[in-house]
Automatic annotation (TrEMBL):
Species the sequence originates in: Rhodanobacter lycopersici
Function: Converts cobyric acid to cobinamide by the addition of aminopropanol on the F carboxylic group.
InterPro entries tied to this protein: Cobalamin_biosynth_CobD/CbiB
Family statement: Belongs to the CobD/CbiB family.
Official protein name in the record: Cobalamin biosynthesis protein CobD
Pathway involvement of the protein, from the record: Cofactor biosynthesis; adenosylcobalamin biosynthesis
Record-annotated membrane-spanning stretches: 49-72, 149-171, 284-303
Length: 309
């Protein structure tokens, strides 16, 4: 029950406060990771693994130590610490804050503003996107980051508490920084990409199930089964295919990166996404979070009742 209540408290803080505007720990972590990369970068997997370890394990160990010290001092201090840590690593409110301006700009026929807004969400070249491609990019980002910034953090918090949430979010951040298949990162970023794959394996599939439950169930499961294997990421594939099927839209396809249009498999089925699809994707994530919280509270209540039986 304390774990479930900490999850509820963290998401309430996220809803009320949003992301910290100054001195966000993940921003500070990114700067530290950049500093480590500049000194340790070599075209070797071992160098990348060492850099990953130096960046991630110290803050995870600090979170574990603080959790133990505070738990010994007071259960309320431990509760407050766990809720605060999860609040800092979860990004539910941020998801809507980034995606909904894209939807509003498209609804107001402000394509340039929509391109600028979606450019803050994705790494592709947005200047060349038309309205449908802007909507697709935003929808894809919401679905994928629903797992990376929300459900994955909730899963590892439920499993390992504050240290687990910190481990997951930092690993995910390093994957976003180093996990590229380019000449510069192919070997150095190998550890970051593989570790993120391992940590995301279960959360991604639970996220896909969650999307299916709150959308077109049979369609989502069919898209997951038939389309996800073709996607280049073993975890993003199930999440985005199930999400696209749940929403009844078509995602994927060609997208521009660094001036080159890359062909990607088609995900989902139905109509091309529009502003409404972006809004429905945000609602899909929010309903999924509400479901996870309800399940966590129920399991905590049953566990507590079992202990007192």
């Amino acid at each position: 029950m304390p774990v479930a209540m900490a999850m509820v408290a963290a998401l309430l803080l996220d809803a009320v406060l949003g992301e910290p505007r100054r001195m966000h720990p993940l921003v500070a972590f990114g700067r530290v990771a950049d500093w480590i990369e500049k000194r340790l970068h070599r075209d070797r997997r071992l160098a990348g693994a060492l850099a990953w370890s130096l960046a991630v394990w110290p803050p995870v160990a600090l979170a574990a130590w603080l959790s133990m010290v505070l738990a010994a001092a007071s259960p309320w201090l431990d509760f407050a610490f766990n809720a605060a840590v999860l609040y800092l690593v979860v990004g539910l409110q941020s998801l809507g804050a980034h995606a909904l301006p894209v939807a509003r700009a498209l609804e107001n026929d402000e394509l340039d503003h929509a391109r600028a807004a979606v450019g803050r969400m994705v790494s592709r070249d947005t200047a060349a996107l038309d309205e449908g491609q802007v909507a697709a990019a935003a929808t894809e980002s919401v679905l994928e980051n629903g797992n990376d910034a929300v459900f994955g953090a909730l899963f590892w918090f439920a499993v390992l508490g504050a240290p687990g949430a910190v481990l997951y979010r930092l690993a995910n951040t390093l994957d976003a920084m180093w996990g590229y298949r380019t000449a510069h990162y192919e070997r150095f970023g190998w550890a970051a990409a593989r570790i993120d794959d391992v940590l995301n394996y279960l959360p991604a599939r639970l996220t896909a199930v969650t999307y299916a439950v709150w959308g077109h169930v049979a369609q989502a499961l069919h898209c997951w089964r038939t389309q996800a294997p073709a996607w280049d990421s073993p975890n993003a594939g199930p999440v985005m295919a199930a999400g696209a099927g749940a929403l009844g839209v078509t995602l994927g396809g060609a997208a521009p990166y660094h001036g080159v249009w890359e062909d990607r498999p088609v995900l989902g089925t139905g109509t091309p996404p529009d502003a409404g699809a972006i809004r429905r994707a945000v609602r899909l994530v929010r309903r999924g979070v509400a479901t996870w919280l309800a399940v966590a509270v129920l399991l905590g209540w049953l566990w507590r009742g079992g202990l007192h039986a």
